[in-house]
Amino acid sequence: MKTFTLYGTSGCHLCEIAQDMLKTQRYSVGGFDFVVVDISESDVLFERYGVTIPVLRHPQGSELQWPFSAQQLRDFLAS
Predict the structure, then answer these.
(1) CA distance 72 to 11
(2) In terms of residue numbers, what domain contains 65?
(3) Could you give the C-alpha distances from 74 to 23, 34, 42, 51, in angstroms and in order?
(4) pTM above 0.90?
């Protein structure tokens, strides 16, 4: 099973939307899991993603940056 990483911060409403989209896609795409990483806990992650969150990282290393549509997310999850 693929495990994706969603980079964000607590209190980020766009990150909450992205999480909800992932939860919804879990039922239509299936076969994946995701973990949420709070970038505020790492200087390196904050420097890298501070102005682009939420960012979804594929297990193979590619990234999908916000904004993304439901269709773009489905395509990314299926890749």
Answers:
(1) 24
(2) 2-78
(3) 12, 14, 29, 24
(4) yes
